[in-house]
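Long-time lurker, first post. I've been practising inverse folding by hand and with some scripts of my own, and I keep getting stuck on stretches where the structure tokens seem ambiguous. Below is the full token string for one chain I'm working on. Before anyone asks, I'm not after the true native sequence, just a reasonable design that respects the backbone. If someone could post their per-position residues I'd love to compare against what I wrote down in my notebook.
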């Protein structure tokens, strides 16, 4: 999976092997409560559910990805805030 920071930088991240640690891991990466955004190709983005309310920095790169890959979620003016995770299909399967 890929972690996209609000400054546009990216890094690879890996789910913990212990399933009891997964939620804490995901929340730590987005710095709060998680919300899923579903892409048309089956991938998913995990964002901070309260990112805008908490005043997290806008994530322009993540917002552009949502605009292209999750058209059902995006509408003009939507802004993703804070760091996000992009789950590839393998990650999505591992979370089931």
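-- Answer (accepted) --
I ran through it position by position. Result:
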């Amino acid at each position: 999976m890929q972690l996209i920071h609000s400054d546009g930088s990216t890094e690879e991240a890996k789910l913990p092997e212990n399933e009891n640690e997964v939620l804490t891991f995901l929340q730590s990466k987005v710095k709060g409560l998680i919300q899923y955004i579903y892409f048309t190709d089956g991938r998913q983005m995990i964002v901070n559910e309260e990112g805008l309310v908490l005043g997290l920095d806008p994530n322009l790169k993540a917002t552009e990805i949502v605009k292209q890959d999750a058209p059902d979620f995006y509408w003009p003016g939507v802004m993703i805030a804070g760091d996000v995770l992009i789950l590839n299909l393998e990650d999505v399967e591992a979370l089931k």
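A couple of notes from the structure itself: Helices lie at 22-30, 60-69, 89-94. The mean pLDDT is 94. Happy to go over any region you disagree with.
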